[in-house]
Amino acid sequence: MVAARSLTALLAALCLFAPSTSVAEDCRTVEDFSKGKVGQFPPDWKPRKDAGRQVYAVQEQDGKRFLHAAARGLGIQAAKELEWDLTAYPVLAWSWRPLEFPKGSDERQSKTNDSALSVYAVFPHTSWSVKSVKYIWSAVAPVGTPVTTSQGLTKGRIVRSGTQRKGEWVEERVNVLEDYRKYFKESNVPKPAGIAVLTDSDDTKSSAQGDYANFRLCKG
Q1: CATH class of 4-218
Q2: Which of 16, 18, 54, 126 has the highest count of CB atoms within 10 angstroms of its CB?
Q3: What is the pLDDT of residues 71-121, one digit of tens each?
Q4: What are the two backbone dihedrals, phi and then psi, of residue 151, each rounded to the nearest 5 degrees?
Q5: Distance between CA 82 and CA 169 in Å, rounded?
Q6: What are the backbone dihedrals phi and psi of residue 146, each rounded to the nearest 5 degrees, phi first?
Q7: DSSP H or E run through 12
Q8: Where are the domains of the chain?
Q9: CA dist 35 to 61, 72, 196, 215, 220, Å?
């Protein structure tokens, strides 16, 4: 699994930029992968390791742009620096599609802690670490199962479970503000520093594939 220190280094390595947004109803689109070239690692993102550039690539299908992830025995995050006001936009929304679940994966066990799809909301913590709220699509762990990694600096839960919808796009919406307060027991919530994704198969030494699309910040 990926340590919190690695996330800090990853986000610190990103160049500062003003993210382009589009408004739709009560949401702002902050990443639709329209700026990326098909078959290449997306601009404004950074892999934790250079090998991550081979894991993640922008793809297009039926006019829809998305980030495709294919991990073979690897566990490498990709992150985008993105600061926003949680009091105005507490909800993070996105679409994802599982294509291959890592064989034998079970996020409840450290030796099999791999997932086809994971999304993080990343927060500043110290000069060398960050806190993260993690949302996972698991093959076997029940929805609502809590997850804690990186010495307690990453907390979250299973938000989607099962392989029945393999190959289907599914919309997800989570209240990051409420989740941060619940998991870290803090009333004063800092602005997020970014978002990250992880499709990994290093613990199971298998392979995993999935797609991510249409990240939005929503009022509710």
Answers
A1: mainly beta
A2: 54
A3: 999 999 999 999 999 999 999 999 999 999 999 999 999 999 999 999 999
A4: 55, 35
A5: 24
A6: -75, 150
A7: helix 4-12
A8: 4-218
A9: 15, 26, 18, 14, 27
